[in-house]
Design goal:
Blueprint: E1 3-4, E2 11-12, H1 22-39, E3 41-45, E4 51-52, E5 67-71, E6 78-81, E7 86-93, E8 101-104, E9 111-112, E10 118-124, E11 128-130, E12 143-146, E13 151-153, E14 159-160, E15 182-183, E16 195-198, E17 205-208, E18 231-235, E19 241-245, E20 253-255, E21 258-262, E22 265-268, E23 271-274, E24 281-284, E25 288-295, E26 299-300, E27 309-318, E28 325-329, E29 341-352, E30 361-364, E31 367-382, E32 387-390, E33 400-409, E34 418-423, E35 444-446, E36 459-463, E37 467-468, E38 474-480, E39 486-496
Parallel strand pairs: 3-5, 4-6, 5-7, 6-8, 14-15, 25-26, 26-28
Antiparallel strand pairs: 1-2, 7-10, 8-9, 10-11, 12-13, 16-17, 18-19, 20-23, 21-22, 22-25, 23-24, 27-28, 27-29, 30-31, 31-39, 32-38, 33-36, 33-37, 33-39, 34-35, 34-38
Length: about 500
């Protein structure tokens, strides 16, 4: 009765067996099978089900082959089960599909074979491992390794998860790429070693190098997006880099002009502005429409638009000044920011009138002019006592009101002179002195030193220098009129808003 070798299952005859036919048995069941174990190339087709290699005593099988080509379209991870016997194989993974092929025994650990690559494996009778050069662990084939000369030619993608110490340099030729090589740990260039970027013919290079002495570890985090032409990199003091306009000072603002385009929308021009926290520039690269009919980025921060209400307009962006947008809010300092947005800068203010429409205005830089002047004070009686006037300027902030005034003496009198003084409420409340040949304290005055007849009355009208309001859009008025009060009219032409430039 024949028996068979343990590993490659060759037939062994007992004495006297197969008389006169031993040559056939020897040729077919021994020599041919040895040939298979040394040089046979067998294709194994897989998909999503584990495949166990066939094995047979004294006849051809899959498990005896020296070379295995794993092919097919993978629809799941697959194990190729080999006999739990000591033997080596050369494996090629020719499959497609985003799944894995693992060579293993039925009970032992296995070895992954990356797609498109060849690796050598060996089974120790229990588990399977690869036979690559000691000290190098890759998910792919590594060839031309000479440890003695420290020369390693890596011709395939490699995933390095441990620590590799390289005493020489790493050179990537013009015909090679390390784009597919990934590192899951840090790369350290020791002793001021350089990272070099060569030109087209590798005759010269640009290098990055650490200084000779570093007193503390520093990590620079690059911006997530590219900047715009002319911008430079700037650190926040903690290693986070961002693009910013060169030399942007605190409270810098340029552009961002606002123009009404409908009852519920304005157009905001391109612009750059420093965030109100002085951390990043917020750059709007193209003109943007801001709608009061919706909420979110380029709209109201929350709620719905209401009549007779001031809305403050902001440039906003996400971290590092990216994804610039606009926002309108009744809250001057803390608008409700859309998700992901953290940076802001106020650009100006707009007014929703009684018809819930954006009141028409014209903006030139910091100067805002009503399309139609607003009569805020009509036939008010003003005396030598201070009177507070409310104006059509943005609430919540101090602006410089642009005003026109008209005043006259109420009643009849002789030698009547009229003078009106409009002043900020945060300045001293001074008495208006008599208008007399250019002397005195007043914004506008009429001097009638020698009236021709009893009953003459003084009348004044005109524009006055800008007057600073308080945060309630108010100023102070006083008059001088001799024995009689003045009747005062005030029109608000617009205002000057520095928009945080002086913060």
């Amino acid at each position: 009765m024949s028996s068979f070798t343990t590993r490659i299952r060759l037939e062994k005859q007992t004495p006297g067996q197969n008389s006169n036919t031993w040559g056939t048995v020897l040729n077919d069941n021994v020599i041919s099978l040895i040939d298979d174990s040394i040089a046979a190339y067998t294709t194994i087709t897989v998909s999503s089900v584990n495949v166990t290699l066939t094995q047979a005593d004294g006849s051809a099988d899959q498990a005896r082959s020296a070379f295995l080509d794993i092919s097919g379209t993978l629809t799941g991870n697959v194990n190729v089960i080999i006999p739990a016997l000591s033997k080596g194989y050369d494996i090629r993974n020719s499959t497609s599909g985003s799944f894995t092929v693992t060579m293993k025994t039925a009970t032992g650990s296995g070895q992954n074979v990356p797609q498109g690559q060849n690796i050598g494996i060996v089974c120790d009778g229990v588990s399977v491992r690869d036979v690559e050069t000691p000290g190098i662990r890759s998910t792919s084939n590594v060839v031309n390794v000479s440890v003695a000369t420290s020369s390693i030619d890596i011709k395939v993608p490699v995933a390095i998860s441990g620590t590799v110490s390289i005493t020489g340099g790493i050179v990537v030729s013009s015909s090679s790429s390390m784009v597919a090589t990934s590192f899951s740990s840090n790369i350290t260039m020791k002793a001021e070693s350089e990272v070099r970027f060569a030109d087209a013919d590798s005759s010269h290079y640009i290098a990055l190098q650490a200084p000779a002495t570093v007193t503390a570890n520093v990590t620079y985090t690059l911006p997530r997006n590219d900047g715009i032409a002319g911008q430079v990199l700037k650190t926040n003091g903690s290693g986070t880099l961002s693009f910013t306009s060169f030399g942007s000072p605190r409270s810098y603002l340029s552009g961002y002009g606002m123009t009404p385009v409908s009852a519920t929308a304005i157009s905001i021009a391109v612009g750059e502005a420093r965030s109100d926290t002085n951390t990043y520039d917020i750059t709007l690269a193209s003109a943007t429409a801001l709608s009061l009919a919706s909420t979110g980025a380029n709209a109201l921060d929350t709620g719905t638009v209401t009549s007779a209400t001031w809305y403050h307009v902001f440039a906003i962006s996400k971290a590092e000044g990216v994804s610039a947008a606009t926002l309108a809010s009744t809250n001057l300092s803390s608008p409700t920011m859309p998700s992901g947005y953290t940076l802001k800068r106020r650009l100006g203010s707009i007014y929703s009138d009684a018809d819930v429409s954006v009141q028409n205005f014209v903006q030139t830089g910091d100067n805002f002019s009503w399309h139609t002047p607003v009569i805020d004070v009509s036939a008010a009686t003003v005396t030598a006592s201070a009177k507070t006037l409310s104006l059509s300027t943005p609430s919540g902030i101090k602006t410089q009101a642009l005003l026109g005034i008209n005043a006259k003496v109420s009643g009849t009198g002789f030698n009547d002179r009229v003078g009106v003084y409009i002043s900020p409420l945060d300045t001293a409340d001074v008495t208006v002195t008599e208008p007399n040949l250019g002397s005195g304290t007043y914004s506008l005055a009429f001097d009638n030193p020698a009236p021709s007849s009893t009953g003459a009355r003084g009348v004044i009208a005109g524009s006055i220098p800008p007057v600073r309001t308080n945060t309630s859009s108010q100023v102070r008025a006083r008059s001088f009129s001799g024995s009689y009060p003045n009747t005062l009219n005030v029109s608000t032409f617009g205002w000057i808003d520095r928009r945080g430039r002086d913060d």
